[in-house]
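User: What would this chain look like folded?
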Amino acid sequence: MQIHPTAVVSKKAKLAGDIQVGPYTIIADNVSIDAGSKIGSHCVITGNTSIGSGCEVFTGAVLGSRPQDLKYKGEQVFLEIGDNNIIREYCTFNPGTEKGAKTVIGNDNLFMAYAHVAHDCIVGNDCVIANNGTLAGYVRVEDKVVVGGLGAVHQFVKVGTLSIIGGCSKVVRDIPPYSTCDGHPASVYGLNLIGLKRNNVGQDSLKNLSRAFKIIFNEGLTTKHALEKIEKEIPKTSEVSYLIKFIRDSKRGISRSVRKS
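Assistant: Here's the prediction, encoded as structure tokens.
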């Protein structure tokens, strides 16, 4: 264990033997950090925060401080961070709000400088939240999502897998999986073809998704009628089936197309 002499580390914290802690970092009582993780200088890790193995936390990050939610009254809440995450300079992650609530970060994510994850969020695996990307409370981000720099996601929004949100976007409705979105408010421009191809989605599935997107976003149908048409006309690959399920389950409604029907 390599702990800089200027770091303040609680004896009650549970730290793996091979972690590194940089100068002037503070680690509080109820923190646990697993093997191989590296904590940079001037960080604050507090609250009931657990950090998995192989993570890198850079200068000035603040993880686990009380949620920025006026209804929080000091209940025991949690922040859980998985394995192999890169958390760059001055990121801030908050725990849950109500008693026992959690903010949960998966594995293999990149949070660029100044990214913020608010209370009660769930972030999946293999995501990128670019510089100053902001997730408000209760946001759900599925796997392999990219949020561009200065993008802001409204509370309770769900961001679907393999979607990409352009920089400076204002996201107020759910982002459909496999989509490319941008704007104020964020609108759907089409499929995230680059992301889909990088994840080895086959040509047949791409064609079926493209047809489904045209029906949903470009034919002027209600959501209900669009989904009914997709189910009648398009083979149900796993991606098409999940797109239908995501839209049907949406509580806030999905972001609409930038194109005029």
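Residues 209 and 240 are 6 Å apart (CA to CA). If you want, I can go into more detail on any region.
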